[in-house]
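quick one before i forget lol
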Amino acid sequence: MKKSEIITELKRQGIVAVIRGNSLEEGLNISKACIEGGLKAIEMAYTNANASEIIKELNTLYHDDQEVCIGAGTVLDASTARMAILSGAKYIVSPSFDADTAVLCNRYGIPYIPGCMTIKEMITAMEAGSEIIKLFPGSVFGPSYIGAVKSPLPQVSLMVTGGIKLDNLDQWFHAGADAVGVGGEFNKLGAKGEFAEITHIASEYVRKTKEARA
């Protein structure tokens, strides 16, 4: 998929699973459990030392499923971004904005989604080519912050990560979020090997996302 198509697909799905895991097997199995539950946008975090291998494996496993969109998260610098892209990452997510990473992603035609908190940070990221901004951590602000941001920046697209749960998911979408990122409970369950429960919860997130955006 081209850059514009990836961005369109992420917005269409509206929800991204932020996967960490403590090993290759754990990160892979959490991701597979989410996809089985219908949550098909996966952000594989580089806090897992095996992130590149997991991204490669997921792309191989789901090559024929056009809805599966594998990206890389917790990307702190351009060298890690390049590693992720060469491994098959379709988009790059950072906890904060990094100018060198923005340049590299633009060079390869890959969406760069940096974490921003302030209007100034968001404008800087948008000027560097970011078409989706990660509002992080969302739990610090609350849903009302989206309206405060979109008053001066109505054109900004926001993916909120941090503090998103099943019982508050609809509040973020109703406030104007274009997408959300979830993952804390998936990673806790994955550490205990409860992959069937991950699949169940993932399906609930997908269902509630569709309801909230209907």
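fyi The CA atoms of residues 160 and 180 lie 5 Å apart.
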